[in-house]
Amino acid sequence: MTNSWTDIRNTDLVVVMGGNAAEAHPCGFKWVTEAKAHRGAKLIVVDPRFTRTASVADFYAPIRQGTDIAFLLGVINHCIRNDRVQWEYTKAFTNASFIVKEGFGYSDGLFTGYDEEKRDYDRTNWDYEIGEDGFARVDPTLQHPRCVWNLLKQHVAVYTPEMVQRICGTPQDKFLRVAQMISECSTPTRTMTSMYALGWTQHSHGSQNIRAMAMLQLILGNIGVRGGGMNALRGHSNIQGLTDLGLMSHLLTGYLNMPTEQEVDYATYMQSRQFRPLRPGQTSYWQNYSKFFVSLQKAMWGDAARAENDWCYDYISKLDVPSYDILRMFELMNQGRVNGYICQGFNPLMAFPDRGKCTAALSKLKFLVTMDPLETETARFWENHGEFNDVNPASIRTEVIQLPTTCFAEDEGSLTNSGRWLQWFWPAATPPGEARKDIWIMSQIFLRMRELYRKEGGAFPDPILNLSWNYHDPNEPEAEELAKEINGRALVDLTDPADPSRVLVPAGKQVVNFSQLRDDGSTMCGCWIYSGCFNEAGNNMARRGTEDPDGTGAYLNWTFAWPLNRRTLYNRASADLQGKPWDPSRKLLEWNGTQWTGYDVPDIGPTSRPDQVMPFIMNQEGSARLFSRGMMRDGPFPAHMEPFESPVPNVLNPRMRGNPVARIFQSDVPRFGNSEEFPFAATTYRLTEHFHYWTKHNKVNAALQPEFFVEISHELAAMRGITGGGWVRVWSKRGSVKAKAVVTRRIQPLNCDGGRVVHVVGIPIHWGFTGAAKKGHSANTLSPFVGDANIETPGFKAFLVNIEPTTPPGVVS
Amino acid sequence: MNIELSRRGLLKVAGAGVAATSVTAMGFGEAEAAVIAHVRPLKLVNTTETRNTCTYCSVACGVILYSRGDVRKGEHAELLHVEGDADHPTNLGTLCPKGAALRDFVRSETRLSFPKIRRPGSDRFEQVSWDVALDRIARLMKDDRDANFIARNQAGTAVNRWTTTGMLAASATTNETAWTTFKVAKTLGIAGFDNQARV
Amino acid sequence: MSAVVPPIPQGNAQKGDAVHPGSPVTVNRYTPMKRLNHWITAASLILLALSGLALFTPSLFFLTGLFGGGQNTRAFHPWIGVVLFLSFFIFFFQLWKANLPERTDWIWLRKIKDVVGSHEENLPELGKYNAGQKFIFWSMTALILVLIVSGVMIWEQYFTQYTSIPVRRIAVLAHSIAAVLIICVFILHVYAAIWTRGTLRAMTRGTVTGGWAWRHHRKWLRELAARRKVGPAE
Amino acid sequence: MSGTMAEQPRTAVSNPPVRALAANFGEQDLVRRSATGSLPAPQRQLTPVAKLIDVSKCIGCKACQSACIEWNDTDPAVGVNAGVYENPHDLTDQMYTLMRFTEWVNPETSNLEWLIRKDGCMHCADPGCLKACPAPGAIVQYTNGIVDFIQANCIGCGYCVKGCPFNIPRISQADHRAYKCTLCSDRVAVGQGPACAKACPTQAIVFGTKEDMKKHADGRIADLKSRGFANAGLYDPPGVGGTHVMYVLHHADKPGIYSDLPENPRISPLVETWKGMTKYVGLAVMGFAAVGSIVHGIFGRANRVAREDEENAEKLVDGRPVPPPASEERAG
């Protein structure tokens, strides 16, 4: 989230779209009801279903899943045409005035430079014109035909209310009511917050869904302000932390990237990471990239990382493909090219798309290791559970090792919440039987492998033998030791460059935060954005001060937020070019003539003048990007793209199927269904009573939602002769499931383009063949094996199914 | 319309072993006081309070764990109750249906307690010791790494990539666990290394 | 054998009724099986009254002590009710013919003051049962039917899911009223048996004296005497 | 009575103590006690407490059900999906509170409204359960408004089920005792609010003195009216003397649409008759029958068999002449 949970109390309008906050994040959603109760805020919900969030909304509008971009560009179009734009904010803080190169264009749903064979764009023309001074050329008057603003205006013009109804199925009056309520937030004194989650991310064009709302929030001036922002409601207690710490195929810690094969050495690697400012006087903070990278290398390999060997640059793998994401891994696994797989938590048999393919892939593994506090379907994928897991154990040669781990109540450490707060917690229970902490297990695996490499040697042992591992007890490093390692410390006395006699940080002492990191090997830091979490002031993640001046919801003395304990990102954008808050009643920062003051850690140099240094300090432009240059594979502007399995053709380009640049594996092409064989639009989602596949192990939650069901409208039920509470069969091109039917008015058929009526089938995801709840099929038996074009998040939210009444599981009809 | 005649018991017959019906003066007969009306004693008395964070979603609600025995003093501790922490600014003591039932997650019947191995083709798990399991894993991983490690690509660039063993990190482990896992996985060169953020 | 035999008077005599000469004459009124049946019915009615009254009013709750506490009282009461119902209706099917109303009953009723004043002489000759006894019989029948039906409806342990709460409210009211009435009928029945001396033995030993029969149920006695000459009742 | 006494709770938003505290109310605060003829009046009047459920803030998440199960250590069975969201499908002896869902299309706006109501004991001021209960001390009412079941005294007869105007009490088939929401009397006794009010994520459920809750409700009703719910109002039904669990409803003029919340709940006249008139008239009638018999037995002459009767019987049996039946009897 750019803001935090407690900041939502400051908002005037909440848009819950692409998520179901009341069900997935009930206690965070409290702040929406608080804003409603105390500020008279309004809540809008736009969703294919009338969810429990909608039950307390002021306005609800239905939408066909997978068409959020058309809806949002329609709202942007509405705001521009009705002059509902925060002009001063947009002109100064976004790249509206930047001029784009010739050769960039868009027509029939495609941008210039599309190569159908490679399913990719040539993105060289998607950039600014650079002047002789090396800076991007701008036209502050926004008259230039190729300035970003005019390109945007032209790009969104096609998304009229009629077009939105044709694509999304949302009645025009409801769409216009939403657009009107949103457009009221263009004034500096009314802010809107967007609360979204997997409803937007789990599409083949997921990233662009979020881009569309980010652009809308920018032109309304709602980024960096109290009660505003782009708030991704992360799903798990530490999914934010694990991503910050780089546990992804293409990442190192702190969002540094893994090198590619083309970046043969450290110099080449750094060459594309200079991040020179594109406008005069801008911060472009990524210029400090090398300090963070070298400090990470020192943290990993200590003394072995020296300038001479490019700081052990070669110890890190270089990627030959954008990333070995989970879809690629399971594709390779299914091709028999993966021998081992380790699941530290996670339950891929339930969580990954196309369960049939996942079972086949897992069955080709030589060995599978699972580490979990609970039984998981993945650990037992080889076990026959009749209709719910119809496999032949004898034919599955995978060796499975199931390791018992502790859970939150038996562990100690920090978790990073959605609002980037790192919060420490303490253990209170003894683990059952021989369950052990994950840290112990990973340490044991590492120490034993290192021992084997010491004795037997083997492939490239250097990084393993040199990995820094100096803890009190190497068998089980303590949480505080690791936290200090993440914070980083000085390896030698750090002296003031201006006055070498002054020692800023004595050797061995913790750095106060990442501003003290250096790229000469004199500092080490596990994760630069977390630096400051455990410095000489102690474990800041364990702080419990509840002061909250002016009720901003910042709580600066409660635990530690990255970066630098800043609670609202881009908070400099809450003030105008004179440094005065847009809305005095909701001040965040203010320029007092010499420096920035206020209720949050300034997201700007403390003495950067308001009329010179723009708020988006991580961008080379210094301003936010309405036009995202070549950074997104599927376009610098979002454009409507149908899901790969869509009930209707793409209105803008009927020939175009799904996202033109999304990666498709050959083996998956025959596994896409069409709307003749599978006429109904399905979507999968969570219920508030369950947490993925964990709480079916909890008798209380199982009692609150005992059995797998699907939700359909009365109209679809009548059409197929389905009665509420009866058994139905739902099947897609990839598999078939049986479930109870919930027939409800909360799902309505949608009238889309050319009079087509689209029926929606809702499929919750929480059942499997282990745990206290009723045994059930899993929703991912049906979902397609294709991910988002930029980040490969599987498209669980929009695919096609068919449905009919049937007999209970195990009973042959 | 309820003519509740209040009169002392009409038939005050002391039956054998029969509790007197009419209530004597304020003192209530000793025998009767026990069963007349009692408020259940608070079940949290003498428990150990521990601040923790809910393990489910990223609202990260503050919770208080009430257990018998203090694990931080090395004692055996059994979790009795979990409740929201009213001092936590995000949830102010509230919990959702999942968080409010955290105790039954910790004490679920399907909590794993022992390392197990399933042999190829077998139809059951066999319990093994930690040493057997961990040695087996280390052996399997080293052999696979040594057999399939790509040190250099055709162009001769040192790529140090190991793609034949993948790893998934979940999403409820601590940052400190994540950092340990990052160090181990990246140092081994595991390319197919992802976490729950991918879904 | 064609001598004209005078018609045998119709006094509702039943199988097992017989008259034996002697001083005094003894008349069999109830067979041992009927007596056992009666006493089972009586015992269960008494237990039901006691346990029922315990639940009927707080001041009598102490009666639950007789059954080992409230829970046991609540648990046993319905089962005893079933016993009452079964045993009563076994009894019912043996006696209902003899209790059908006759003309003499109305006369008996009209002369109720004589009945209470024990001036039997003004009363008509009666068969085996007088109108009072018939009233007891039929009222017991009706009330026990109401009690069993409403009782099953409010039998918490097994049958509440078959009826709605409003229906059960009616049932519990009906049950209470029927219970009060049946206790009154019971008191009347017991008192009448005591007040009419020589009656109890009918249910204890099964026989009454000839004089008792002559005084209270003369037509019944005449029938038995007539049958005795002709041989055992066909 | 060990340790200091906790003061009366005015909110549910607080962390419970772990040291022993004396309960701040108990036997001496009883204002009503089932099947108890004479109850000494309580010497003090505790400030009446109340739980307010604001249906307009309720997101139907069932946190109250989870918290209730956890606090009271109940064990509701894992049932089946019956095509609805209500699980378990009804209040049970292991489930004291239940989310009830209604999909209602508002005729004026033709918008769908998903009305979700937390069902459970209303803690009436004039509790029908207590009135119907035959077991002394099985149901008690304290001066702060809490109506509590004392399982030790319960005999499992189910009368409370018939007495309650809201169909709340449930009899356990396991131990044949009645169970319902206790308004967390054990928490309130140590100055805490009920577990559901503590857990409720959107604070749709709030707890405090009844006066505070009414003031809070007024604020909520004003907010709802500003959002177009003209008939928003407080549900505190006078028919049962007001309740210590109250609702704020968007449509207070039509409580029935919220899964049959009774329009004007009151103790059924049948129950009133049964526990009132029937009892006293019944006792009187039985008393009269008993006494009447005894008096008649004492003063009225016993109906004895005379010697002459015995002689006639013997004559009849021996075939000797006896007085013939009177003419009118001949028609017999």
Shape of chain B: elongated
Rounded radius of gyration of chain B (Å):
31 Å
The main β sheet of chain B shows up as: 3 strands, antiparallel
**What integer value in Å does the Rg of chain D equal?**
29 Å
Q: What's the rounded overall pLDDT mean of chain B?
A: 85
CATH class of the largest domain in chain B: Alpha Beta
Strand residue percentage of chain D? 15-25%
Structural class of chain B: alpha+beta
Mind summarizing the main beta sheet of chain D? 4 strands, mixed
Summarize the structure in words.
The complex is a heterotetramer of chains A (813), B (199), C (234) and D (332). With 813 residues, chain A is α/β, with parallel strands linked by helices. In chain A, 22% of the residues lie in helices and 15% in strands. Chain A folds into four domains: 5-232, Dimethylsulfoxide Reductase, domain 2 (3-Layer(aba) Sandwich), CATH 3.40.228.10; 239-316 and 482-540, no CATH class; 326-464, Rossmann fold (3-Layer(aba) Sandwich); 666-805, Barwin-like endoglucanases (Beta Barrel). The longest helix of chain A is centred in the middle third of the chain and has 19 residues, at 438-456. The two termini of chain A are 50 Å apart. Chain C has a single domain (23-229), classed as Transmembrane di-heme cytochromes, Chain C (Fumarate Reductase Cytochrome B subunit), CATH 1.20.950.20. Chain C has a three-stranded antiparallel beta sheet with strand order 1-2-3. In chain C, α8 packs across α9 (218-230). Chain C is elongated and about 65 Å long. Chain C is mainly alpha-helical and 234 residues long. Chain D is built from ten helices and eleven strands. The longest helix of chain D is centred in the last third of the chain and has 23 residues, at 277-299. Chain D has two domains: 27-266, 2-Layer Sandwich (Alpha-Beta Plaits); 278-330, no CATH class. Chains in contact: A-B, A-D, B-C, B-D, C-D. β10 (340-344) of chain A pairs parallel with β8 (165-169) of chain B, so a sheet runs across the interface.
What key phrases describe this protein's structure?
heterotetramer; A: 813 residues; alpha/beta; Dimethylsulfoxide Reductase, domain 2; Rossmann fold; six-stranded mixed beta sheet; five-stranded parallel beta sheet; 31 strands; 22% helix; B: 199 residues; alpha+beta; Phosphorylase Kinase, domain 1; 3 domains; three-stranded antiparallel beta sheet; 4 helices; disordered N terminus
